[in-house]
Amino acid sequence: MKSSFRWYGDADPVTLDEIRQIPGMRSVVSAVYDVKSGEVWPEESIKHLADECRAHGLIFDVVESIPVTEEIKLGRPEQDRHIANYCESIRRCAKYGVKCVTYNFMPVFDWTRTQLDKPGADGSTSLVMYWDQMKGLDPLKDDIHLPGWDASYSQDEVRDLIRAYGELGEEGLWQNIACFLKRVIPVAEECGVVMAVHPDDPPYPIFGLPRVVTCEENLDRYLSIVDSPANALCLCTGSLGCFPKNNIPKLVRKYSAMHRIGFMHLRNVKILPDTSFEESGHLTRNGSLDMNAIVKALVETGFDGWFRPDHGRMIWGETGKPGYGLFDRALGSAYLNGLIEANGGTIE
Prior knowledge:
Blueprint: E1 2-6, H1 16-19, E2 27-30, H2 43-55, E3 59-64, H3 70-74, H4 79-95, E4 100-104, E5 115-119, E6 125-129, H5 155-191, E7 194-198, H6 216-225, E8 231-236, H7 237-241, H8 248-257, E9 261-266, E10 269-271, E11 277-279, H9 291-300, E12 306-309, H10 327-342
Parallel strand pairs: 1-2, 1-12, 2-3, 3-4, 4-7, 7-8, 8-9, 9-12
Antiparallel strand pairs: 5-6, 6-11, 10-11
């Protein structure tokens, strides 16, 4: 398996010097952040990322993410141009050594939380989603600014998008997914790139927006649209795991055995009685997921792709991008390394 770490580029307060010191660290997961969604990534920006990582003894071979625009998801007039640009960005990334591209098909918002700094009993803070903090909110009437929502949209634009997705519905979204995959996956195959779709976070409807990358039945449907090893999953244990009906070790074992997992996001989550959830420390005992069973499934099915610790708590007084501090994610990486080694796995 290949250990990796998310890095937000030169502006990230977590440095490559720090990342390289995490035991077993190999790969950097990053993206080009200064290009408007739907446009082609400049080669010089991709090369800069690759060069910076190489200079620090690391490999830039995973992109997270090339954004899928609302025009693609909704099937609007710019869909064809944006898909063509997406394909060109894949080609350019492959030219500089990228082997895996993670992306998502979540309408409007990549993820939804109600608080980014919920204090824990130990003094750490973490990301949470509490249903009681969502009660009574109506984005079609109220001005809502939830964490994780794209601040580039005005409230009127958000309302227009929510209405558009309401008219599109789940089946309309599936049709646009198929349009995207049938054009993108052949390009990925030619380039030796695995496309890894991230599940919806959380994996159930928010404010009536259609969510489809949510459960085993829908994951099967997604992978069957283009039956290719290049059409794979970024199996995020925390995203799928906050829905109690998703048996995460079972899903990991199934899709890893099928060689349809390109990338693993490994984190724990604590599910509350009303299905609200809190992002916990990585240890099994801190959340609702059996992290050892998940890693065991990966080892026993011969998974040789990338993994990374996902969101971490903010600990030891660290400040920065919530969920993406150095300390707790580094601890999570070390814990995952131990589970892999104890189960007989190998870290490249």
